[in-house]
Amino acid sequence: MSRILLSRLIDLVVVLFGVSIIVFLMIRLIPGDAVAIMLGANTEITPERMAELNSRVGLDKPIVQQYLVWAGAALRGDFGTSLWTGRPVATEIITNLWPTLELTFLSLLIGAVLAVPVGCWMAQTRGSGMDVAMRIGAIAGLTIPSFWLGIVLILLFSAFVPGFSSLGYVPFSEDPFGNLQRMLLPSIALALPILANLSRLVRSAMLDALGQDYVRTARAKGLSERTVVYKHALRNALIPFLTSVGIMTGYLLGGAIVVEQVFAIPGLGRLILGAIAERNYPLIQATILVVTAGFVLVNFVVDFLYIVVDPRVRA
Amino acid sequence: MFRSVLRGAIGAGVMMAAMASASAQVLEIGLDNGPTGLDPHLITAFPSFMVVNGNIYEGLTAVDKDLKIIPGLAESWNVSTDGKTYTFKLRSGVKFHDGTDMTAEDVVSTIRRVQSKDIASPLASRLSAIDSAKAVDPQTVELTLKEPSAPLLSSLATIAIVPSEVETNKDILQKTPVGTGPFKFQEWQPNGFILLAKNDAYWQKGAPKLSGLKFNIVPESATRQVGLVNGQYALLPNIDAATALQLKGKPSVKLGETLDLAYMLIGMNVSKAPFDNPKVREAVNYAINRQEIVDAALFGAGVPGGPLSPALKSWALDVKEFPCYKPDPAKAQALLKEAGVAMPVTVTMNVLPRQDVKDIAQVVQEQLNKAGFKVELKNQEQGQFIQDWRNSNFDLFASINAGSPDPDEYFYRTFRTGGSTNVFKYSNPEIDQLLDKARTLSDQAARKTAYDQVQKTLACTGPVAHLTYGTLFSAMRDKLQGYDVMPNRSLSTLKNASY
């Protein structure tokens, strides 16, 4: 167990180091540097002023030196300050992390929790008209883009539910009701593809499991169909389910960029997008590292859950 | 279960709406982009300008909705007869948001701050004529100029007066601005909103009427529109024609409009063939049908325009004065033949990534192709576009520029040989001489004569084909009263607005 933990930790360090270098270089390869973007195409600026602005934010130093200075500080837990506002990068990430965490949690809750009964039901009613209808529904859920669904939900609610505040974000601690109200639509928009994907997965894993000998044995000893499905077959069907949930969590933590854009939620996705658009180097580097670490950690947790769910992995 | 959640949410939504209207004093504004910072001497892009200009900060002078210069923090001023000494009498009883009095010392240190190399303000060139600033007494400031500068009063309207303590501080105003304006900074949630609260100690009696301004950062256009229609936002300032038309006639929504100071343009690189030849540039102007651009790309909401915005009524020449503004593809082809270039003239046009600019670029491409050109459009990422623009790495580009209330601000830096934004590498001794002379004249009529000549020359053979000036719209809830859309996109009239 501790060996697994250790190897995972080494993985994390290697991945973070690699990602930090790639991000550092890539963002500087994109044409247009931070100063040029900040100034825009329409200012009365001289080359001397540009040089002064560059030195103001430390972009006049050689790139290797810039990386070493940044990495050294980051190792000590100091991610620096946002390029123009001077706000600590760590603070910006934490403020933007909460909405994303909440959105991830809620959409997974809706999607994953519903996927299990829906998937089981689809497996049980295999071949019936209901199964076909639900499979078509699942494909629709997979193919409808979240941003489109988001806009349609906003339009529908504004037309039929006047006074429903669906835009922006208020922290749960300030106004729990307003918070949930604003989170409802984006969570649904994100949950639908998750539900579609996972229920199909549960369905096929469940069909697999239902064909196994031990299921026949369970039926033969007179257990109710419900117990057979949920107690015996489901547990085996959960492994691919967990893997998928893990990967989805990773993506959601990276910020559901488009949905955050549509619903004007100040989450990690918009933080990264905005930072890239303005070439806010310290902010981009730190945010992507945090997201990467989140991805790796979630996968680690999923590996750990395999052991809990499936005793065979423990050996 | 879902249905009951929905029903609960609906009920709560109605309740919340009722609560919100009881305290609807903070004006909810929907902006597409958040500012990069709030230091008025450093960040000059529109999102930042709309938040700070006239709301948090004020200048010595100000402009009204017709862009006429009016008193700001200075209640009056005198100009010496040689035009080199300006004496400003400051308004009394003006306080900064931190409670200290605004005095002549603050004005002097503000000017030093903008000119300082450490602060590296992009606005420095607007004050380049100022040699020194002196506080004569706490209410009087004297500016000494190197040479007379007619655009100075207009420029000063854009220079925010800040407390003297921050003169050498680079960072503090970016996060926590302190000004004299009708609203003071309260909270900034990055990517979320910027909240300004009423300044109770504001010098103008009875203003502001609103108890605050909340700038919500909402990147998605459809979301902003729905937010306005359902009442979550009360104002969408400075929107384009396409959005405005979609909102027109929606219940409880009204539109305000003005002629934009900003303009669409095609830039031509005169440092290399084929646009080094004035005949080719003239051919471009003849090939372009500006009314067609207004109709096709701006949905009719705009006017064809020359080098100066028709909004600048006291300066701009009527486009009828420019012969090349009468579309004539045959004449364009004849000019290309005279120029001796091989037809079709194959060129690339870099396009700024904005929907209205992209639309216009396509119309212009079509028009030029009919008149002997072969234009390839290059849709670029913003950073790439700016880099190519700055390095003069283009044949043609299509873009939008913010205009200036005074002709000198735009002309001098753009068309003077060696001007700071003369990326076209344009050099014309006649224009140089006119521009040098005009900025030293204080007589309005004499200045106008000089700028008339400049406009005529630039219109047909200059490095920029000025296309159109759009109608600038703001969409707002019916209840919002007293807010005027301004051609320079400032939201400074919000101090007299009520909701």
From TrEMBL, chain A:
Q: Which UniProt keywords apply?
A: Cell membrane, Membrane, Transmembrane, Transmembrane helix, Transport
Q: Which PROSITE patterns match?
A: ABC_TM1
Membrane topology per the entry is:
Multi-pass membrane protein
CDD domains, A to Z: TM_PBP2
Q: Which Pfam families match?
A: BPD_transp_1 (PF00528), BPD_transp_1_N (PF19300)
Q: What does the UniProt entry say about where the protein is found?
A: Cell membrane
Q: What is its main location?
A: membrane
The UniProt transmembrane annotation reads 12-30, 105-124, 136-160, 180-198, 241-263, 283-309
InterPro entries recorded: BPD_transp_1_N, MetI-like, MetI-like_sf
Chain ranges of the ABC transmembrane type-1 domain:
97-302
Top-rank lineage group of the source organism: Bacteria
Q: Which Gene3D superfamilies match?
A: MetI-like
The record's comment on protein family reads: Belongs to the binding-protein-dependent transport system permease family.
Full protein name: ABC transporter permease
What organism is listed for this UniProt entry? Microvirga puerhi
UniProtKB/TrEMBL annotation, chain B:
> Domain Solute-binding protein family: where?
68-420
Localization (cell): Periplasm
Please state the span of the N-terminal signal peptide per the UniProt entry: 1-24
Say yes or no: keyword Transport present: yes
* Matching Pfam families: SBP_bac_5 (PF00496)
**What InterPro entries does its record include?**
Peptide/Ni-bd, SBP_5, SBP_5_dom
Known PANTHER family for this protein? Answer: OLIGOPEPTIDE-BINDING PROTEIN APPA, PERIPLASMIC BINDING COMPONENT OF ABC TRANSPORTER
Family membership noted in the UniProt record:
Belongs to the bacterial solute-binding protein 5 family.
Q: Which protein, by its recorded name, is this? A: ABC transporter substrate-binding protein
Organism field:
Microvirga puerhi
